[in-house]
Specification:
The complex is a heterodimer of chains A (346) and B (420). Chain A has 346 residues and is of the alpha+beta class. Chain A has eight helices and 17 strands. Classes of the chains: A alpha+beta (346), B alpha+beta (420).
């Protein structure tokens, strides 16, 4: 055979061998629609009870500074807490009943933050009783790290019917320290309404953060008043001078709304003194306008040896709530100082 | 040119090439211990060169000729040597036939490698499939409804889904920008009890499920489950995991979570994973999924019955499944283009050969979702499957002819000597 012809044949074969690789390309085609295989039906095609079942509803009193972040597929309620010290979140999640599996619950959380599981004997010490919506629940705290970040979680849970309800507070350490008492009080207010039962009570929402307890106020604190640590939903708290053993305290709170109006608040105060609620007509008889503060009102309440002087003062779109409460002698003695304090811009 | 011709027609080249081939088979086999069967074979035998890389065992040479290179050089060498020395005589007929058979075997091997395709068709009893699925390759598909009966599919092979790549197709009303592509991944439910990272996207499955990258698996029995994070321009970022396209995987996820959160909640979580992901663009809804590459046929198979027989008395407490005696699938072929409907049995050593495909009985068991039999058929397309038989026949005939030629010549010569 001619040598040139042979060489061309060889080179052509070589080219074919070294370039014959299949290329990856986009394919476009039409096919018959897929139908479920008979008789089987994939689990994923089956609407699950969890996905379609009506969800329970919640009623609660939202603490000041908590923002409602709405429900998610897993959690019925989510809240965000943003403070100068950092952020935290709260969520409420019902899961299948884990009654009797407390060790599993605690250890599941512990594993998530890189902590060793607790032994059976150590579990009792990790759980503390707590009131959740009038029922007895349990609370535990864990701290550790996940993905290189410090994590602290406070979890309360309650076995109820065929479910276990989890209430979780998670966030920066400083925020959790400050918010733990608020969280504990919040848990007391939560009410669960199962589907099909009577409508849940209206959610009492106290949105928008109040001024931080540490904020500096311009008011002049009357002489003799002693500043105390503010409680939950309070911006300030004072102890007035004792009079022959009679004591009283001043509480100051601020909210972005009138939180239900004068009647609701006055009746709440009356209940605190063991008095019966009044109606609108009764309210008019109780309140007097406060001089120097347009729209503000003063309420005088007495019950046996206890007394309360309350004031509701609208200022620049916010409602300030002042309360002088304690033994009657101490309240009476501080009345004038209290009124001056209320009249002062904070 | 003369040197090149001399090089390719050299018998020394044949010896060297065969020597390298022996070494390649030895090293390539050893490498499969470390690299896994699939990756080892791909790297050593389905390549032109093997280049040493970080993490290789100590004996891997910096450069070594791969299977394609050695096969190609051997083929060229054989071809060139024959073109040079070819003589059309009875004396050389056997040798020529034998070498032609070897040439055919080499070409057939290459054709098999290039054009054969293996996939699986998994069926549960009563189920019908028009397609089989690749065991290792995946494709990103966008599907839109054409009418009540048909859908249009735009299938993008994952080879095009490199991180940072942008894929466009005239049929798609949006570009597909690949933010990330993970060859292997694992899901993690965005549980409220855990500290969740920021979601990968605020759309579709990513609202409830996180996915994270995992190392690529190498073993033949292991499976990579890729996830793609896609930027569809004005339609947002979408997480498309292969997990969501496999009902058995979703079932296994559900069972895993059932242990910790209970059946009802786990079912809800699984439903979130299986929920279809759609974007609306150009007035049409496009459903997207990342699934094993599908190979559609013009006919369907329906699994009518599975038969799983074991040898009597071999089922024990330690081996309750016993020693298998017979795996058999009775299927119905329905070919609307030919108007053909018939039933056949597929069992060991009795594959179904139909329309250029061979269906082997591969796996069998009970379905994990519904209590019916399940059968896995290995589907092989190999256009050159007859070539090895033909080449062996030619080599056999060639050797016989050569042997007989010399034997007859020897006997004839001996008789003549005796007669003298």
């Amino acid at each position: 055979m001619n040598r040139r012809c042979s060489l061309i044949t060889i080179l052509a074969t070589a080219a074919a061998l070294f370039t014959g690789c299949e290329r990856e390309e986009i394919r476009v085609y039409s096919v018959a629609k897929e139908t479920a295989e008979a008789p089987a039906k994939a689990a994923s095609d089956t609407p699950t009870p969890a996905a379609n079942a009506p969800r329970p509803q919640l009623a609660y009193t939202l603490p000041a500074g908590w923002q409602d972040a709405g429900p998610t597929p897993m959690s019925l309620a989510n809240f965000r807490i943003t403070t100068d010290a950092g952020e935290a979140s709260v969520n409420i999640t019902p899961l299948a009943s884990m009654a009797g599996k407390e060790a599993l619950v605690v250890n599941m959380w512990r594993e998530q933050v890189g902590q060793k599981p607790l032994a059976e004997g150590e579990l009792a010490g990790a759980l503390a009783p707590i009131e959740i919506g009038g029922e007895k629940g349990q609370l535990f705290e864990i701290a550790g790290s996940r993905d290189g970040q410090t994590v602290r979680i406070i979890t309360a849970f309650l076995h109820r019917g065929g479910a276990s309800w989890f209430y979780k507070l998670q966030g920066a350490d400083a925020v959790l320290t400050a918010q733990k008492p608020v969280f504990v009080e919040f848990l007391k207010t939560v009410r669960i309404k199962e589907p099909g039962s009577a409508p849940a009570a209206e959610v009492v929402k106290v949105a928008d953060p109040a001024p931080a307890a540490t904020a500096e106020f311009k008011w002049k604190v009357p002489e003799g008043w002693q500043t105390l640590p503010a409680g939950q939903m309070q911006v300030a708290k004072f102890a007035v001078p004792a009079r022959d053993g009679a004591k009283a305290e001043v509480f100051v709170s601020v909210f972005p709304s009138d939180t239900g109006g004068a009647l609701a608040n006055v009746n709440r105060w009356r209940r605190q003194l063991g008095l019966e609620a009044v109606d609108e007509a009764g309210l008019k008889a109780l309140v007097t306008p406060l001089e120097g503060a347009p729209g503000a009102m003063l309420v005088d309440l007495k019950s046996d040896a206890k007394a309360m002087l309350g004031a509701i003062v609208p200022r620049e779109g916010r409602w300030w709530f002042y309360k002088l409460m304690g033994d009657t002698a101490a309240v009476t003695a501080e009345r004038a100082a209290f009124i001056r304090f209320v009249q002062t811009a904070p | 040119m003369k040197l090149l011709w001399k090089f390719f027609t050299s018998l020394r080249l044949t010896v060297w090439t065969l020597g390298f081939a022996i070494a390649l088979v030895f090293l390539g086999t050893l490498a499969q211990v470390h690299e896994g069967l699939w990756d080892g074979q791909t790297r050593w035998f389905r390549s032109y060169f093997v280049l040493r890389k970080a993490g290789d065992v100590w004996w891997v040479p910096p450069v070594f000729p791969g299977g394609y290179f050695i096969g190609a050089v051997l083929l060229l060498n054989l071809l060139a040597a024959h073109l040079k020395r070819f003589q059309l005589t009875w004396r050389k007929a056997g040798i020529n036939l034998t070498h032609f058979g070897i040439l055919l075997m080499l070409v057939g091997g290459l054709a098999t490698d290039m054009y054969s395709r293996e996939s699986v068709m998994n069926l549960r009893e009563g189920g019908t499939r028009f397609f089989s699925e690749a065991t290792r390759e995946h494709e990103l598909v966008f599907i839109r409804t054409l009418d009540d009966a048909r859908e249009e599919v735009v299938a993008i092979p994952t080879a095009l889904l490199r991180t940072g790549a942008e894929v466009r197709d005239a049929k798609l009303p949006f570009p597909v920008k690949v933010k990330s592509y993970w060859v292997n991944s694992t899901p993690d439910f965005r549980a409220p009890m855990g500290k969740n990272a920021a979601p990968l996207s605020d759309k579709g499955i990513a609202k409830d499920w996180d996915f994270s990258e995992r190392p690529e698996t190498k073993g033949m029995d292991d499976r990579n489950l890729p996830t793609a994070i896609l930027d569809l321009g004005e339609h947002g970022v979408w997480v498309v995991p292969s997990w969501a396209s496999d009902e058995l995987l979703i079932e296994s996820v559900k069972r895993t979570y059932t242990k910790s959160v209970g059946a009802e909640t786990a079912a809800g979580m699984a439903a979130k994973m299986a929920a279809p992901q759609e974007v609306e663009a150009g007035g049409r809804k496009w459903r997207m999924t990342l699934r094993p590459t599908r190979h559609y046929n013009s006919f369907s198979l329906t699994l009518l019955k599975t038969t799983h027989e074991i040898y009597l008395g071999t089922s024990t407490s330690t081996n309750p499944q016993g020693i298998p005696k017979n795996f058999q699938s009775r299927v119905r072929i329905n070919n609307p283009t030919k108007g053909e409907t018939r039933e056949v049995d597929i069992y060991m050593n009795n594959p179904l050969r139909y329309e250029g495909l061979t269906f082997f009985q591969a796996t069998m068991g009970r379905d994990e979702i519904v209590d019916v039999g399940r059968s896995g058929l290995q589907v092989v397309r190999n256009p050159s499957w007859l070539v090895p038989y033909l080449s062996c026949l030619l080599v056999g005939i060639g050797l016989t002819v050569q042997f007989l030629y010399h034997l007859i010549g020897f006997i004839t010569k001996r008789r003549a000597t005796v007669a003298v």
